[in-house]
Design goal:
CATH topology of the largest domain: Beta-Lactamase
Strand content: 5-15%
Oligomer: single chain
Radius of gyration: 18 Å
CATH superfamily of the largest domain: GAF domain
Helix content: 40-55%
Number of strands: 5
Length: 251
Amino acid sequence: MMRERTLAGAVSELADLLVGDYDVADLLDLLVAKIVLLVDVAEAALLLPDQHGSLQVMASSDERAGLVELYQAQAGEGPCRDCHRTGEMVRVADLNEATSRWPRFARLALEQGYAAVHAIPLRSRDEVIGAVTLFGTTPGDLPIEALSLARALADVATIGIVHARAGGRRDVLVAQLEHALHSRIVIEQAKGVLAERDRTTVDEAFRALRDFARRNGYRLTDVAREVAERRLPPERIVEGRTGPGRVGGEP
């Protein structure tokens, strides 16, 4: 019963984000966070193509997964790339058995402590618009129920990316994805500012950013931009303060 309530809450949170003028970057970050929470995986990361067709890391549940996903995008090999290319789910229960298939990716993933990977496509009808990688730290195939759950969450995010406001126009979709990529860059900059200021890890800095944004009803990208541009004091983020101040154009 607890799992069903958690799942219902996750779907509701994703759906709530789709109401109004939502931020694609917020949606993707929420997606990977909920997949880690609800599916038996250690981390998750997501790749989407930019306007030139090159895959870019748009969201990751922690820095380690983001690093492996970035290497996958740059090296031209890995489960998420294969998943995006074929539109089919990729399941690897033991990364040691994938060293000939993806020699560079498998080596780095194993070095980072991962032992199994699964990749799920983000599909919009006949078009594959991205893919999400699920990382496990112990060998083993995920049960079909877990994969179905991850796919369902990915489908909700896909709906958000190709929301009706895009009107089915590819140029608008590309613009949304480009915005998500730029948002990712701003978020990375803000994570660096917070991590340096508070002498903490970038993962802890990201959690502080995300928690502050959700607690105060702001967009994650807006908060990150204010921090990166030194308009929002880092202590307000790390200490959880909610005093007066402007974030992302808010009065």
